[in-house]
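So, can you check this one?
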Amino acid sequence: YLCKYCEKSFAHRPNLSRHISEKHKLLRYFCPFCDTSFIRKTHLTKHIPSCPSKMKKRDDDLPYGCKICEKKFTFQTSLRRHIREKHLNIRFICPHCGMTFTQKVSLFNHVEYRCKGPNPVTFMEKKKNVEMEDEG
């Protein structure tokens, strides 16, 4: 069984699952075409030119479009993440060191593995008049 994030191989699926949950919790870079996630931005940058979903679809064919900047996405989850991170400016703040994150899971991982504190969520939201509407 091959890890799709680092290509390490395992003889048994449970070992692969444990490896992913332990080593790849900080996945925070998402492909806008296929929703694959990466630990490093450089891995995402290398992935995008050869992304199978990108090759199959042109932007005009993508079903979910942002009404603010007109960027289009294959998946509704990608559109929602885009709106939350780029337009709503929602941030989760570490109460121990002040680092900010766009995703709650990234804050949890940071607190657990970097700050060694409990898993509180401090939420600061700067709202703009933006509606996330379902399309498609």
Observations:
- Helices lie at 13-23, 41-47, 52-56, 76-87, 104-115.
